[in-house]
Amino acid sequence: MKRYCLTLDLKDDLALIAEYEHWHKSENSWPEINKSIKDAGIIFMEIYRVSNRLFMIMATIDAFDFGRKAVADANNPKVQEWEELMWKFQQPLQFAKPGEKWVLMDKIFQLG
């Protein structure tokens, strides 16, 4: 199993942040999005927030590949609809590459 941590900023607007959290409650999640995540080999995912900064933890199968996930997402109309909706709330980090949303973080410490 592999673990990845990613980060992204939300627009600094309390109403938009509340709506973003609304869409991420289990009762409001889209089954097609959850399926696409699992189909890509993501076993576990959590998103945390402080202010307008998001932090995502993912555990994946060993064969997980971000490139394959990106291709699958680009060819999935429901994922594209979700991404368009989410972009209403999100903004790229200053150092993100063009078109990059979530930025992969470097692990710098581990206890044990």
UniProtKB/TrEMBL annotation:
Highest taxon above the source species: Bacteria
SUPFAM superfamilies the record matches: Dimeric alpha+beta barrel
InterPro entries hit by this protein: Carb_Metab_Mutarotase, Dimeric_a/b-barrel, Rham/fucose_mutarotase
MF (Gene Ontology): racemase and epimerase activity, acting on carbohydrates and derivatives
Name of one Pfam family that matches: rhaM
Alphabetized PANTHER family for the sequence: UPF0734 PROTEIN DDB_G0273871/DDB_G0273177, UPF0734 PROTEIN DDB_G0273871_DDB_G0273177
Protein's name according to its UniProt entry: L-rhamnose mutarotase
Organism (species): Mucilaginibacter mallensis
